[in-house]
Design brief:
five-stranded parallel sheet, LacI/GalR-like_sensor, elongated, Lambda_DNA-bd_dom_sf, transcription, LacI family transcriptional regulator, Peripla_BP_I, 12 helices
Length: about 325
């Protein structure tokens, strides 16, 4: 239909920069008009590539749009490339490494993205040892550098704790993530450093974590608030836990913003609609998704240096 050679068509469909833009536009226009799609099975046999990137998500990562925000950012990064994004669910009672092993051993994707990085994450170890392209949302402590996108949770907890001290809190607390996750250490380090510098007391919530049901977090806060040594300030690592904490403080007779104070990370516009009296620090999961996609594309292309992004929190307090 174009009178061009097969190799030229192939390069035009892959948006090869060495071809004239006019040629690329003409070929892509005709391909769109006739509904042409490459045979992915044939492509895999010929090149060894699947043109697939797999994002592994747990069902609870859809809460407050975490997964949706990541997908939005990743697809923006993949736009104008030959890659397709496939979501691989990580079901409950399945070890996190199992879908990774299945993808790698069956060459079902050219790269993988996953979250909830642990301190010594066996998924990261497996992917490094198999030289398989990946990027994690969160960091590990393996000695080898690896691709990651993360939020500086230590800086966040430090700044949030200092803010609570400025508001007059005498004791602060935090509901932590699972102890195996790397960012748990970062949150603890930031809170401890700020509390010691400002001379206030601090504690880590016992018996509950970010994975606990919201009712359990709420009830814990109610019980702690009714004791003489209960915290009057909370640093929250997620919007969901913040709503549970605010509910518990309110049920215990405290007024958030007056007799108790809360600082939380905010990643959705929905949280602001509740007007709960908490102060917030933005964590942009769409931007994280864009960075995850861009870094993985570079890793698939063979790059091995500077494949890490650490987003810094921005504190914009009301006063």
């Amino acid at each position: 239909m174009t009178g061009l050679a097969v190799t030229t068509i192939s390069r035009a469909l892959n948006n090869a920069p060495e071809l004239a833009q006019e040629t690329r536009d003409r070929v892509q226009k005709i391909a769109a008009e006739i509904g042409y799609m490459p045979d992915r099975a044939a492509l895999r046999l010929k090149t060894g590539r699947t043109n697939v990137i797999s994002l592994i998500l747990e069902p609870d990562e859809q809460i407050y749009g975490f997964g949706t925000s990541l997908v939005t950012g990743i697809t923006e990064a993949l736009r104008s490339t030959a890659f397709h994004l496939v979501i691989t669910p990580l079901f409950r009672n399945v070890q996190p490494i199992e879908p990774i092993q299945h993808i790698v051993r069956n060459r079902m994707a050219d790269g993988v993205i996953f979250s909830k990085a642990e301190t010594f994450d066996e998924r990261i170890r497996f992917l490094i040892d198999n030289d398989f392209p990946f990027v994690s949302h969160g960091r590990s402590r393996w000695p080898e550098p690896h691709p990651f996108v993360d939020f500086d949770n230590e800086a966040y907890a430090y700044g949030a704790t200092r803010r609570l001290a400025e508001k007059g809190c005498r004791k602060v607390s935090i509901v932590l993530p699972d102890s195996a996750l790397t960012y748990t250490e970062h949150l603890k380090a930031g809170m401890e450093r700020a509390a010691r510098e400002t001379g206030i007391a601090f504690e880590y919530a016992a018996d509950v974590n970010l994975g606990s049901p919201t009712d359990a977090i709420r009830n814990y806060v109610i019980k702690r608030s009714k004791r003489p040594d209960g915290p009057d300030g909370y640093v929250c690592a997620s919007e969901v836990s913040a709503l549970a904490v605010i509910g518990g403080l309110t049920d215990a007779g405290l007024v958030v913003g007056k007799t108790a104070h809360v600082v939380t990370k905010q990643s959705s516009s929905m949280f602001a609609q509740f007007q709960p009296g908490a102060e917030t620090v933005q964590e942009d999961f769409v931007a994280a998704g864009r960075n995850l996609g861009a870094i993985l594309l570079r890793r698939i292309a063979g790059e091995t240096e500077d494949l890490q992004v650490l987003a810094e929190p921005k504190f914009d307090w009301k006063d």
